[in-house]
Structure formats: C-alpha cells, structure tokens
Predict the 3D structure of the following.
Amino acid sequence: MTNTAFQSNAHTSSTRRPRILCIDDDPDVQATIALRMREYNVEIEHAYYGTQGIYEAVHAHPDLIVMDVAMPHGDGEYLLNCIKANSATAGIPVLVLSGMRDPSRKHRLLSLGAEEYLQKPIRFDDLLRQMSRFVEIRQCDCEEES
Amino acid sequence: MMNPDEPINVLLLEDDAEDRLLLTKQLHGRQRGFVISCAGTLKSAIELLGRQSFDVVITDLSVPDSHGFETVSRIRKHSGQAPVIVLTGMDDDLMAGEILAIGAQDYLVKGQLDERAVQRAVRHAVQRQRLVNDVQQLASELGASRQALEEQSQLLKKKNRRLKRLYRAGQEIMDNVSHDFRTPLTVIKDYVSIIRAGMAGAVNEEQQAMLDKVIVRADDLNLMVDDLLDVSRLEAGLIRAWRRRIRLTEVVQRAASMLHQRADTRRVEFLVDCPEDLPDVYGDADQIGRIITNLAVNAIKFSGTAGRVVLRAKYDEANREVVVSVADNGPGIDEKSLEQIFERFSQLSNGTLATNKGHGLGLNIAHQFARINLGELKVQSRVGQGSEFSFSTPIADPAEALRRWLALYGMDAQQLRVVHISVANDCLAPSSNEFDSFLYCLLRRDDLLYRTSRCEWLLVMASPPSESNRWFERAEEEFVSANRNRPFGPLPDYRAEAYCEWDSLVQPEEAVRQFAEIARQSSAASALVSSPLVESA
C-alpha cells in the first residue's frame, strides 16, 4: 500500500482541521472513535443511519468517511453507491469498517469505490494508520484544546 | 422375432371365389403354416379385424363395397399393426409406388405367382412388420424414458435451486449472527482499550494488567466467531480462495499487530522475521492472514509465560514457495497426539468436522486454508522443546500455481479447459480491477483463475465440457446484470475464448509447460502498456 497515490486527496492544510464523517448506527462505536480522536487534531461528524450519512456527506463535505455496512435506512452498499454517484462527494475517500466478514460483500464494496475494507474489531493504531493515508492527523496539544 | 412354428393368421379379403381358392391353396401348400380367414366384403373384413388379431391382411383392390386404393386405406385404418399386402391384376411401377404410398407393405400380382413366392412374400411381410413394430416399441419406450429423465432432471434442478437457496439463507444467518456477536465485542474491546490507555482517568499497573486480559479474552471470542464462520463456510463448501499475486510481508504485518498485543499480555516474546525481499506469492490474502493468526494464537497460548514465539517467512527457491512458520518453545506435542491432529485433518477433508481439543478449530481451518491456497500445513514437534507449525504458499508464478492446482483438483477431471479472458489493453487499473472482482464472483470453488497482467486472465476449469461451456453463458448473464446498476458506468467489455483443452491423458508436466508458455505470451503482450502487477493485500 502506498501513500503517494492518495496525497492529492488530502485537503488538509495547517489552517483547517481535517473533518472525518463517521457513519455507524451503534452510538458506542461512534463514542469510542470520538473519544480516541479527542487527542488528535481532527473534527469528527456523526451520522447514525444511511440516509443521514448521505446528507452529511453532501452538506459537511468531510475529508474522509468511515462507515459501517449494516445500518438502517440505507445500508453500506446503498450509501457508497450514492456517495460515489454524486460528483460533489465522489472524491471523498471512504473507509468501510464492518463486522461483516462475507468476502463477496467486501469485493462489492471495494468495486463500488471504497478505499479499504476494515474489519471490526480493529485496533485503534491500525485504524489511525489507515485514516492517516487520506488525511493529515496530528496529535494535538490537549491542554490547549480543553 | 417370429417363431417359425407358430401359424400365421391371415385375413384374405377377396370377393372372387376362384382367386380366393387359388391363393388359399398356394398358402397352404405342403406345410400347414397359415391359418386363413376369408372375407368377401370390406364390411365383413372390418368386422373380423375387430374380433380377432391377424398377422397379415391380403386384400383385393376391388370388392363389392369398396374400390381401388380406398379399400387399402380403409383396411389400414382397422388392421392395426398387421401389414397389408395388396392383390392386383396389373404389374406396373407407377401403381406399385402408389400402393406402397398409401400404407400397404407389398403387393402380389394375380396369376403370376407360384406357391413358394406367395408364401415367402407373406412370411416376409409379417417378419418386416414385426421388426417395424419392435423398433416402434423401442422408440416409444425410449421416448417415455427420455421424458421421465427430463422430468427427473427438472425435479433435480428444482431441488438443487432450493438447496442452494437454503444454503445461502443458512450462510446469511451465520453471517448476521457472527456480525451481531462482533458488534458488542468491538464496543467492549474499544471501551476497555480506552480505559486501559488512561483516557478515562488514571489506571494503576495492576488494573492495566487486568484490562489487558479483558482485551485478549475479547479477541479470543472474536477469533472464535471467525473460526465458527470459516468452519461453517468450509463445511458448506462455500469457501473460494481469491488467489492473487500478493506481498506476504503486508499480510504478516497486518496479522502481527493483534498478535504483538496478545503476546505482550501473556508475557510471551513474539518475534517477526519477514524479509522485505520475499518474492510475491499467489494466494488469498485474507485466508493466509487467518492461517498466520490461528497458528500464532495457538503458539502464544501454548508457549506459556516467558515463552518465545517466532513468526518467520522464508523463501524456498527449490520448491518455488514461501514457507511461513510459527515456532514456540512450549511443551511440544507427543507423536501420538500429532498423529491424531493430522488424522482429524483428513476427516475434515472428507467433510466431517472435528476439533482438536485444546487447539480449537484453528488448526483445522489453517490446514484447509493452506490447502485451497495451494500449499500445505506441516508440523514438527519435540516434547519438552516446542512445536513448529509451518505452511507453504506458491510464489506468484502461473506454472507453479497450475502444477499445484492440478495436484489438488485437476487429476481426475475428464477434461481441462483453459479460457483466455481479456479487457482492452488501455483499460485503466481501477476499471480492470473491478473486472477482476467481477471474475472472482463468477469463480467456482475448483476453478483456477490467474491474472497474468493488468488486462488479462487465464481461467482453468476441470469440469465436463457441457459445464465449462455454461461458463460463457453465465459470464455473459452476470456481466449484463452487473452492468445494470453501476454508478461509475459499465464494466469494461471483455473477450473470453477457449484457448486450449487437455484430456485426461495429458501429462501434468506437459500441461504445466504449455500453460507457462500461454501465460508468458499473454503477459508479454501487455507488458508494454502495464506495469508489473501486485495487488494490495
């Protein structure tokens, strides 16, 4: 896996914190990611079901999307289809993070344009490394932040 | 066949008493082989035909109640399977042709026949008719059994479809249940990791050690769910290997991250020795990752506190494979238990599932995955010194892949067929990769698919010709249906052609040699436009 291919996608500059949209119907999954990311210089947006994810993707235009597959109101495949079919959001890199292991689903999602299919549970370090391929993630000075 | 001793029942329709007498005399002759019933009119002849069965009907063309060819066709309607011989006063070819055309079998010319000729003509007519009847009987029986077969085959198809549906449904349930297990596990693990990291307040060392154990145990459960899922798929025969050219180092690194944490918690030294310059291998990255995880999890478990586990990948040039080994310094396995472990493996290959107590399902899964990835799982162990489990994967070379695949699936096949599949040379990587995924979805369990370049594939099928022909139809159907709903536009157009066939007599070495040549040509042709192909794990 090379990082070079994706550098053009990283919109991040030192003036703006990268925004990551997290689409997952499980609030605890959302909460743990948000907790972990508190130490980093990023903004996390949340969406809890498929269509909300599409809405947020269009309106918030995040730098990266991390999404689940099995969700109400538009599952991962539908969501990815919509994101990639819309020219306004097609360029946003998408990481799929799912507890599903079905290899055919994985291939379908990759062929729909997901950058990576990651499996839950994932070690936070591994998730961070994957996210860093697409956005610049720096550890922040927490004291200053809070 | 006709029994020569059985008398032949003859119905003679002739209104002229003199002719009747003559023919009767000629038929009776010296031997009494004929039983003759006479009728003077068509009506009485038809009545007789309704009452008893005759072996042959001899009829005059003109009788008081019927004239000419009509007599013959009306007799034919009632004579059933008995042949009709026509008595005629004239002998010309035109007439003969017409008589036969309306269904008579033969004709006799009045006044031109002697006793032997008449008898012979009648006997032959009967014999011919019986043969015809036999053939017709056989044909109708054949038709009936064909119909029965067709019905059976429809029934089987229906049952097969139903079974497939049930299998799929069962698999879906399995997938969903395992997903539902994993979701809370993920959350448990994440929260514990967050607490462990001190993000929710200070945690002392003792608490850290406990939380580490919770994480490892949560991983255990997760691995068990993975094992159960794999086993259910293996048992259902649903597992296909998506064999591709992959970098083993990446697969090892991916698996190692969880393993390091686990080893640390158990105070086991875990070393990874995976050279950067390993040749690419040909296999399914996920499945190879699962083998590594399963072997290493066992090793960490059995090496005990202060143990040492070494995960090593090594290129074996002579065997054209990379061998990944996991060695521990645990108690080792005695010979009897080793035998048992491998006995169980052979049971699993026969479709029976068995767990090796203590080793869980992990070893069986590793064994099966190694096998469908064209390698082999081996174990060396010494009691008191430790065990080393290792598995091999072929290097990414088409000839090597085919050699191993033939040994695994191909040898009993009646016919092997190589199909060359390509997309346009200028097709870009994302698009040809999508087509690669599409081909994977079409793949059956025992097919060998080798991507020789960015835009070319070789597919080897070991199935009867009728079935491998179906592949082309299925590919086309699936292609159309895949293209129906794609946000980025259609998949690239492809060409698929049967490239060569080998029958069961071909020597494996010869097939491998030819395959290497085909692969060389196909990758050389596109080398100009595409860079060497390594797929991300």
The helical segments of chain A are 27-37, 50-60, 76-85, 103-111, 124-132, 142-145. The longest helix of chain A spans residues 27-37. Chain A has a mean pLDDT of 85. Residues 17-136 of chain A form a domain with the Rossmann fold fold (CATH 3.40.50.2300).
